[in-house]
Amino acid sequence: MKRFGLIGFPLSHSFSHKYFTEKFKQMGLSESHRYDLFALEYLKDFPGLWERYPNLVGLNVTVPHKENVRRFLDRLDSSARKVEAVNVIKKEGDKLVGYNSDYYGFKQSVLNYFQGAELVSDALILGGGGASKAVEAVFLDLGIKYMVVSRQRAKGDLTYEDIKQNPDYLAKTGMIVNTTPLGMSPNIEGKPDLPYDVIHPEQYLYDLVYNPEETAFMREGRQRGARTKNGLEMLHLQADKSWEIWNS
Q1: How much is the CA Rg of the chain, to the nearest whole Å?
Q2: Which of 61, 82, 87, 209 has the lowest CB atom count within 10 Å?
Q3: How far is Cα 188 from Cα 176, in angstroms, rounded to an integer?
Q4: Residues 2, 18, 44, 66: which is the catalytic one?
Q5: C-alpha–C-alpha distance, residues 172 and 52, integer Å
Q6: Is 92:101 a contact under the CB 8 Å cutoff?
Q7: Percent composition of the chain: helix, strand, coil (DSSP 3-state, to 5)
Q8: Is 66 a catalytic residue?
Q9: How far apart are the C-alpha atoms of 242 and 248, rounded to whole Å?
């Protein structure tokens, strides 16, 4: 039995377990493959996971471990080095190798979002954690100038307070990407602290959150005519890339 899984904390609303369980069933692999959730609050428990499950061959990584898990790995693929975060781990022989499929998923999803239209020239990235790293790498590759917005100045270029004091930062940017978990079920009314009144129809709002289908952040944009998209397509794309990595 080949075992795969997801580490992070908390894991109460995991897309991955249902997705891969159904994928294995559709592929006729239910008897030989399984996908489990491993709620690891602390990474000190990470090495023991591989000792406890010798048939574990691949993991996905979610918050809050995408950056710090790197120190437990033997090697990083170029995708993980570029993003400086890991969301896929593959056991190769006796080595653990880190990859990043968020980069691939977000890039393809953004290109689908614009559907061949001209890309925006600038963007704001809300949140300075592991998820934002993939967004930053994609924008660098696509030539989109960006600034990171964080509660702490040390983690970004701007703070939310900066934007409230000068709403032009928000009004004059082409795309706004929420990489924080704000608004994720069950706390569906949560949203980044922004002056939403300046949002307008020429803007694109992208939320990495996918549950609920329309977050409070997206709703604020839609009500002002902006184009909005959630993170479900990205999630499917990065999950399929994970499967490709584990089987390469």
Answers
A1: 18
A2: 82
A3: 19
A4: 66
A5: 52
A6: no
A7: 40, 25, 40
A8: yes
A9: 10
CA-based nearest residue to 8, from 245, 181, 212: 181
Cα–Cα distance measured from residue 90 to residue 56, given in angstroms and rounded to the nearest whole number: 9
Over residues 72-110, the pLDDT tens digits come to: 999 999 999 999 999 999 999 999 999 999 999 999 999
pLDDT tens for each residue of 154-179? 788 999 999 999 999 999 999 999 99
The residue among 177, 184, 75 whose CA lies nearest residue 133 is 177
| CB 35 within 8 Å of CB 16 | yes
Average pLDDT (131-144) is 94
Which amino acid does the sequence have at 9?
A: F
Record the tokens describing residue 11, joined without a space: 């894991």
Tally of CB atoms within 10 A around 225: 11
In angstroms, rounded to a whole number, what is the distance separating the alpha carbons of residues 80 and 133? 10
Compute the residue count for the chain.
248
Q: When comparing pLDDT for 229 and 10, which is higher?
A: 229
